From TrEMBL:
Keywords assigned: Signal
Keyword Signal: yes
Cellular component terms (Gene Ontology): extracellular region
N-terminal signal peptide: 1-19
A biological-process GO annotation: carbohydrate metabolic process
Region Disordered, residue ranges: 237-273
Name listed for the protein in its UniProt record: CBM1 domain-containing protein
Organism: Orbilia javanica
Domain of life: Eukaryota
SMART domains: fCBD
GO MF term (any one): cellulose binding
SUPFAM superfamilies, alphabetized: Cellulose-binding domain
Ranges for domain CBM1: 277-313
Amino acid sequence: MRSPIFGALAFANWVVANAIPSPPTLVVKRADTWGGSVSLGPSKSTIVKAVTTIIPGPAPPTQNGVLFLWPGMSNGTGDLIQATLESWPSNSWCGAATGQWCVRASVFGWFGQRDGSASPVSGSDQVRIEYALQSDQNTWLQTVTNAVTGALLSTYSSASGPYMRGYGTGTECNDNCSGTIAAQSYINTVITLASADTTFGGTIAVAGGATYSGLTSSDGGKVWSIASINIPAMSKSSQTTSTTTSRVTTTTTTSRVTTTSTRTTTRASTTSGSGSCSAAQYAQCGGTDFTGCTTCALPYTCKYQNAWYSQCL
Ligand SMILES: *[C@@H]1O[C@H](CO)[C@@H](O)[C@H](O)[C@H]1NC(C)=O
Ligand SMILES: *[C@@H]1O[C@H](CO)[C@@H](O)[C@H](O)[C@H]1NC(C)=O
């Protein structure tokens, strides 16, 4: 048995574990659940480009908590490149109607979550998500388009480095979310490595009832393709639970507007303060409705934990 960083469950659990260090005070156990997943890695080489097309199925007509569908790419310690299809209690913040998702290019890292602008997509839409390492060998450009019409849906660029070794899908259900109601498909997934790695295909891992077909390689093991990946709708048997620890929150009605400002707050906190305030180690420095100091005392940085809570660590 391999125990790769990016084995499907390990991948999901890594994302969670990395995001949630142990806070020191006043905590509750919070159960997040994960749907099926397929993942590859770590590669002996590095990923230079990854393209997939997701057909998400309809978003739930009503939503408890928040649901995210994403193809993710990381190296286990650095940024997680993850264009996300999102279902919130209301998706009107991106102009979506009931049953539609909001999609946006996004990156998750020590700074929290940073996003491009979002667009609505329907369940039968083919949403093409491309991650491409730019010629500076450091910048990743995410480009999200409608695969049929070519319309640009979202884009985001981040200096996430050249050492991406794992790629996988995530169906992530946060804050007691009510789960997916439809299966999702990923088609025409193509991962291009910097150099041949004939062992990459052997690292594929599935979890939660997900299946794949048509795993092939070309160019001596430099280019890896998966014709289709199918993730079942969430059900008791297809979900895994990761119990994470987070602060008590009484905020149950989270409007997208406040969450956006949370993310902005987290982002702002990563710059060195002009001396106006400085939050201590372990202090809260961001989160929905948080209005306190968003700059951490050196050497701590404000780390995103979830939409409701960021902490100086
Ligand atoms: C992951 O990528 C970051 C950014 O390039 C780099 O600093 C870090 O060393 C990498 N980690 C591994 C395990 O490759
Ligand atoms: C989770 O949501 C369900 C309804 O979807 C509700 O019955 C239950 O009380 C919620 N649990 C918590 C801990 O909020």
